[in-house]
Design a protein that fits this description.
single chain, 989 residues, alpha/beta, Alpha-Beta Plaits, 6-stranded antiparallel sheet, 6-stranded mixed sheet, 22 strands, 11% strand, rod-shaped, binds adenosine-5'-triphosphate, binds magnesium ion
C-alpha cells in the first residue's frame, strides 16, 4: 500500500540542501555507504511526527537536528521536514483531505518548534494524535531503528506490553482515560471544595435558622402586640385624660373650698383674738369707770348730806308763821331745783346732740369705707375667679398636649440651681428651621422634653430630687455617657441616594457642638423625606428599619405602621415657651390677689365691728337724748307751773330773774353740783352699760365663733381628706399616663399625638385584649435577645446552601459519570488488548515457523488477573530447542523473534507504514531471503521502507534509493537500479 508519498527535508541533520524523496511503491529499499545519511531519513520521519526524545533521534538537544555545517558549508539556521501522506483510506480520520502534509520546522534563533498540517499551524499534540492513528509511534514495532531489533526480546514484559497496547489501539483509550482522570481529579477537587463550603454553611445553618425563626416569632408577636397594645393604650389615654380632667376640676373645687374655709377660720380666729384684746381693754375701762362711778356716788352722797344741812340751816332762818310766805319760799326753792334739773338736762341733751352728730359722721364714714372695701373685695374675687378659670384652661390645654405632661422635666428645670449640672430641655437648646419644624415636632416631640445633663452624676442627683419631692418623671440625656446610634456605611449611602431624601433629623437641627451627642441620641435614626410617596418607597427599601417622617408630618414607624393627618398643635417650636411663662404670671397674680383678699376681708370685718359698736353707741345716746328731752319738757312744765303758783301767791314772776345766779341759795348751788355729778354719773352709767352690752355681745360672739369654727374645722378636715384622695388618684393616674407615654415612645417610637391619630383596630373583647398583651409581653420576654438580621442572613445562607448543595449533587453525578466512563474505557481497553494478544497468538506460530523454519512461540501474560496492567512475555521454541530465557537467544534469533511478532501483528492489525533500519542485519543470507520474501506478503496492506545492506533484501524491493555524500557531509539521494545497489554493497565489502 502506498501511504507515505514524499519526504521533503531541508536543513535537517545531513540534509543541507533541499532534498525530496518521492515514494511510488509499497516496498522501498534504501542503500548507501556507512555514514551517508540513511538512518537520518528514519530520524526525519520520526522528528516530523513530533518525537520529543532527542535521544531516540540520536541527539541530545533540538539544535543537534539542524545541519551543523561542513568543511565548506556553513551551518543551517533552521531544520524543516515535510511528510506527504496518502489519506485516501482515511487513516488520519481527523483530517478530511486525500493528501495530508505534515511539517515540522525548528528555527535556531527563535528556538521554536512549529508544526503544520496541510500548511495550518497546529499544536504538538495534534501531530502526536495523528501519529498515534497511523501507529507510527516509538513504542510500536512500526519503526525499528538501527540496532534496536534485539530490544524486543530483551525488553521487560511491562515495556513489551506497550507494543500490544499500540497494536490494540489502546493508546487513544489511554489518552482518553488520562484526560478523564484529570477531569475526575479536578471534579473531585472541586467537589471537595464545594463540600467544604456546603458543610461549613450547613454547620451554621441550624443555629441561623433557629435565630431567624426566633426573630420571625418575635416580629410576629411584636406585630400582634403592637396592634392590640396601641389600641388599648390609646383607649386608656382617653379614659385617663377624661378622668384626670374630671379629678383636676374636682380637686380645684376642693382646694378652693379649703382655701375659703381656712381663710374663714383664720379670720374668725383673728376676730376672736381681737375681741379678747378688746374685752380686756374694756374690762379695764369698766373697772376704772366703776371706780369713778363709786367716787361720784360718794361725792353725790356727800353733797346731798351737805345740802340737807344747808337746807336745814336755811329752813331754820325762814319764818314759818306766814304760811303763804313759807309756801312761796318753798315754791321758789322747788322752782330753782327744777330749773337746775332742767338746765342739767339741757346740758346733757346739748352734749349728746353734739356727740350723736359726731357719731353719725363717723358712722357714715365707716359705712362708706365699708362699702368701698366690700366693692374692692368683690372686684378681687371676680379677678381671682377669672384667673382661676384662665389657669384651669391653661392647665387643661397643657394636659391635653403630651408635651406639657412632662411635669418631671418642668420641675427639674425649675429647680436647676438646686440640682446642678442641668443644661436644659433639648427643646430649649435646638434651633429648627421653619421647614422642618412640623416633621421634627411630630417625630420627636416627646424626646424634645428630655433634659440634657452634664453628667451621669448630675442625673443621679436629679432623679433623687424628683423622687424626694414626688415631682414627676423625666428622661435625662447625660452628655458624658450617651452612646447614640447613627445610620452609617452602606445603609447610609443607600438612604442618601433614595428619592426625596432630605436629611437625617439630627443633621437638620442646629445645636451647639458640645450638645451634639444629645441631639444625635434623640434624632440620629430619624430620616426626613419630602413626601409620603418617598417615605413609603424608602421604608420598603430599608426593610422598615428606621423612623421616617415627611415634611408634612406623616410618619412611617419601624415595623411599618403609618401615622398621618394633622392637628392644631403640631408644632411644638412655636407655642411652647409662651404658654409656660403665661401660666407662671397667672400663678403669681393669683397669689397676690389671694393675699389682698384676705387683707381686705380682715379690714372689712374690723370696720364692721367698729360700725356695729358705733351704731349701739348711737342708739344708746339717742335713747338717752329722747329721755332727756322728755325730762326737759317735764321740767319746763314744772317750772311754768311753779312759776304760775308763785305768781299767784306773790305776784312776782320767777321766770324773769333766772339770769342771776349770784344770789342763789347755797342749797341750789349744791343741787347744781349734784345735778352735774349726776349727769356725769349717768354718762358713766351709759358708758358702762354700753361696755357691758358689748362684753356680753363679745361673749355671745365668741361662743358663736367657737361653735362655727369647730364646725368649720371638721368640714375642713373632711375636705382635706377628700382632696387628698383625689390627689392621690390623680397622681396614680398621672403616673399611669406617663407610663403609657413612655411605653408608646420606647416600644413604638410614638408620641401620644401620633398614637391618637393612628387608625387603630377596634377591640372587640377588651378583657381578652388586656390579657393577651400580658401573655405577649411575657412571651416576648421569654424569647429574649433576638437578632433581626438573622432572618435575612438565614435567607441568604439558605439560598447559598441550596445552591452549593445542588452543585455538589451535580458535580457528584458528573464525577460518577466520569468514573463510569473510566470503567467503560478500562473494559474497552481490556477487551481490545486481550483480542489483540489472542489474535497475535493465533498468527504467531505460523510467522515464527516461517521465519525460523519450524518451532513455535506464544505470548503470555505475566499477570493474567490484571489484564490492564499485565506485562507480556513470549515463550519461544525454535526448532529443536528448549529456551527458558530470551536473553539466551543469539542476536539473529532475537531479530527473528521480533520480526515474527511484527509480522503476526501486521497480519491481524495491519499498519500503513513500517520502517526497518537494518533490522535484518544480524541474519544469515538464508534467513535474509526468507525475511525479504515474507515481507512481500504484507505489501498490499503495508508500505515498507527498508534500510539495508543486504542483497537478498534489495532484490525484493520495488524501488531502491541510493544515499551518498558526494559533497562531504551533505546527503544526496537518487533512485538507483538493483545492479548499482549491488555494486555499492560490493564496494563496501
Ligand atoms: P550506516 O550505514 O553506518 O548506518 P548511515 O547512512 O545510516 O550509516 P547516518 O547515520 O544516517 O548514516 O548518517 C550519519 C551522518 O550524518 C554522520 O556522518 C553525521 O556526520 C551526519 N550528521 C548527523 N547529524 C548531522 C548534523 N546535524 N549536521 C551535519 N551532519 C550530520
Ligand atoms: Mg544507519
Amino acid at each position: 500500500m502506498l501511504f507515505l508519498r514524499q519526504i521533503r527535508a531541508h536543513g535537517f541533520k545531513s540534509f543541507a540542501d533541499p532534498t525530496t524523496l518521492d515514494f511510488t511503491h509499497d516496498m522501498i529499499g534504501v542503500v548507501g555507504p556507512n555514514g551517508s545519511g540513511k538512518s537520518n531519513i528514519t530520524d526525519a520521519i520520526k522528528w516530523t511526527l513530533a518525537e520529543q526524545s532527542a535521544k531516540s533521534l540520536r541527539g541530545s538537544k533540538t539544535d543537534d537536528f539542524v545541519f551543523s555545517g561542513s568543511s565548506d558549508r556553513k551551518a543551517a539556521d533552521f531544520a524543516e521536514v515535510t511528510l506527504v501522506f496518502d489519506n485516501q483510506k482515511n487513516i488520519f480520520s481527523t483530517v478530511d483531505t486525500e493528501i495530508v502534509e505534515i511539517t515540522r520546522k525548528f528555527v535556531k534563533k527563535t528556538r521554536e518548534n512549529e508544526y503544520y498540517i496541510n500548511g495550518q499551524r497546529v499544536k504538538t499534540r495534534d501531530i502526536q494524535d495523528i501519529a498515534l492513528e497511523s501507529g507510527l509511534t516509538k513504542s510500536s514495532l512500526a519503526i525499528i531503528s538501527q540496532g534496536t531489533i534485539s530490544n524486543f526480546a530483551e525488553a521487560k514484559p511491562e515495556a513489551r506490553r506497550e507494543i500490544f497496547d499500540d497494536a490494540a489501539g489502546v493508546a487513544k483509550y489511554k489518552k482518553r482515560k488520562k484526560e478523564t482522570l484529570i477531569k475526575l481529579i479536578r471534579t473531585q477537587e472541586n467537589l471537595n471544595r464545594l463540600e467544604d463550603i456546603t458543610s461549613e454553611i450547613g454547620r451554621r445553618l441550624p443555629s441561623l435558622e433557629k435565630q431567624a425563626k426566633k426573630a420571625e416569632l418575635y416580629k410576629e408577636k411584636i406585630k400582634e402586640l403592637q396592634s392590640i397594645e396601641i389600641s388599648i393604650l390609646v383607649k386608656d389615654i382617653k379614659t385617663i385624660k377624661e378622668r384626670i380632667q374630671d379629678l383636676s376640676s374636682q380637686r380645684s373645687v376642693f382646694q378652693e373650698k379649703i382655701k375659703t374655709l381656712s381663710n374663714e377660720i383664720n379670720l374668725s380666729q383673728e376676730e376672736f383674738d381681737l375681741m379678747v384684746n378688746d374685752s380686756s381693754s374694756s374690762e379695764m375701762e369698766i373697772s376704772q369707770l366703776n371706780n369713778k362711778f363709786q367716787e361720784i356716788i360718794q361725792r353725790i352722797g356727800n353733797l346731798k348730806v351737805k345740802k340737807q344741812e344747808v337746807e336745814a340751816r336755811e329752813a331754820s332762818k325762814i319764818d314759818t308763821k306766814d304760811a303763804d310766805e313759807f309756801k312761796a319760799i318753798q315754791i321758789k326753792k322747788q322752782f330753782e331745783e327744777t330749773r337746775v334739773q332742767l338746765s342739767s338736762e339741757k346740758d346733757k341733751a346739748f352734749r349728746l346732740e353734739a356727740q350723736i352728730n359726731e357719731l353719725k359722721e363717723q358712722y357714715d364714714y365707716l359705712s362708706s369705707k365699708y362699702n368701698d372695701i366690700y366693692d374692692e373685695i368683690e372686684t378681687i374675687r371676680k379677678n381671682i375667679s377669672r384667673i382661676q378659670i384662665q389657669k384651669e384652661h391653661n392647665e387643661n390645654q397643657r394636659q391635653s398636649t403630651q408635651y406639657g405632661a412632662n411635669q418631671g422635666a418642668d420641675n427639674v428645670i425649675k429647680h436647676a440651681s438646686n440640682i446642678g449640672g442641668v443644661v436644659g430641655t433639648l427643646l430649649s437648646l435646638v434651633k429648627v428651621e421653619q421647614a422642618y419644624q412640623t416633621a421634627i415636632s411630630v417625630v420627636a416631640g416627646a424626646s424634645m422634653n428630655s433634659v440634657v445633663m452634664k453628667s451621669n452624676v448630675d442625673v443621679k442627683k436629679a432623679v433623687e430630687f424628683l423622687k424626694r419631692n414626688n415631682a414627676g418623671r423625666c428622661t435625662f440625656l447625660p452628655l458624658d455617657s450617651l452612646n447614640p446610634s447613627v445610620i452609617q456605611g452602606a445603609q447610609r449611602a443607600a438612604i442618601e441616594n433614595a428619592r426625596g431624601f432630605i436629611g437625617i433629623a439630627n443633621e437638620l437641627v442646629a445645636i451647639e457642638a458640645k450638645y451634639q451627642t444629645a441631639l444625635d441620641y434623640a434624632l440620629g435614626t430619624i430620616i426626613v423625606v419630602d413626601t409620603y410617596d418617598s417615605a413609603t418607597a424608602l421604608a420598603k427599601n430599608i426593610n422598615y428599619r428606621f423612623n421616617i417622617v415627611t415634611l408634612e408630618g406623616d410618619r412611617i414607624l419601624p415595623h411599618g405602621a403609618i401615622v398621618g393627618g394633622k392637628t392644631r398643635s403640631q408644632n411644638i417650636f412655636s407655642s411652647q415657651s409662651q404658654t409656660q411663662s403665661n401660666s407662671e404670671e397667672l400663678e403669681q397674680t393669683l397669689v397676690r390677689l389671694d393675699a389682698k383678699e384676705i387683707e381686705k376681708t380682715r379690714e372689712l370685718n374690723d370696720l364692721k365691728l367698729q360700725r356695729d359698736q358705733l351704731r349701739d353707741n348711737l342708739n344708746d345716746n339717742q335713747a338717752i337724748i329722747r329721755n332727756a328731752k322728755q325730762n326737759i319738757e317735764q321740767y319746763r312744765v314744772k317750772t311754768n307751773e311753779l312759776s304760775e303758783d308763785y305768781r299767784i301767791l306773790t305776784g312776782n314772776d320767777l321766770l324773769g330773774n333766772n339770769q342771776d345766779d349770784s344770789n342763789e341759795s347755797e342749797s341750789i348751788k349744791f343741787s347744781r353740783q349734784i345735778a352735774k355729778l349726776e349727769n356725769e354719773r349717768d354718762e358713766i352709767q351709759t358708758r358702762l352699760n354700753l361696755l357691758s352690752t358689748s362684753r356680753n355681745k363679745y361673749v355671745d360672739r365668741q361662743r358663736e365663733l367657737n361653735e362655727q369654727n369647730s364646725g368649720k374645722r371638721a368640714e375642713l378636715d373632711h375636705l382635706k381628706d377628700q382632696s387628698a384622695a383625689v390627689s392621690s388618684e390623680l397622681s396614680a393616674l398621672q403616673e399611669r399616663y406617663i407610663a403609657i407615654l413612655k411605653r408608646l415612645a420606647e416600644g413604638y417610637g410614638l408620641t401620644e399625638e401620633a398614637a391618637l391619630e393612628m387608625e387603630t383596630d377596634a377591640i372587640e373583647n377588651e378583657q381578652y385584649a388586656r390579657e393577651r398583651i400580658l401573655v405577649l409581653a411575657s412571651e416576648l420576654k421569654d424569647i429574649g435577645n433576638i437578632n433581626i438580621d438573622a432572618i435575612e442572613e438565614y435567607k441568604v445562607e439558605k439560598e447559598r446552601f441550596d445552591y452549593y448543595d445542588l452543585q455538589v449533587k451535580e458535580i457528584r453525578e458528573a464525577a460518577e459519570k466520569l468514573q463510569s466512563i473510566i470503567m467503560d474505557i478500562d473494559i474497552a481497553m481490556e477487551t481490545q488488548f486481550k483480542k489483540v494478544v489472542d489474535d497475535v497468538n493465533a498468527a504467531l506460530p505460523e510467522a515464527f515457523a516461517k521465519l525460523f523454519g519450524g518451532g513455535t512461540a506464544e505470548l503470555i501474560y505475566t499477570d493474567p488477573e490484571n489484564i490492564l496492567e499485565t506485562g507480556i512475555d513470549i515463550k519461544v521454541n525454535p526448532p529443536g530447542k528448549k529456551i527458558s530465557n530470551l536473553n539466551l537467544l543469539s542476536g539473529g534469533e532475537k531479530s527473528l523473534v521480533a520480526l515474527s511478532v511484527l509480522f503476526s501483528i501486521l497480519k491481524v492489525r495491519p499498519l500503513p507504514l513500517v520502517i526497518l533500519d537494518e533490522a535484518e542485519a544480524p541474519l544469515d543470507p538464508a534467513n535474509v531471503e526468507r525475511f525479504a520474501r515474507y515481507i512481500k506478503l504484507f505489501t498490499s496492506e503495508t508500505q515498507f521502507i527498508v534500510v539495508t545492506h543486504r542483497e537478498g533484501t534489495m532484490e525484493n524491493c520495488d524501488i531502491l534509493f541510493g544515499v551518498t555524500m558526494e559533497t562531504k557531509g551533505i546527503t544526496k539521494i537518487v533512485k538507483i537500479k538493483l545492479v548499482d545497489a549491488k555494486e555499492m554493497v560490493s564496494k563496501e565489502d
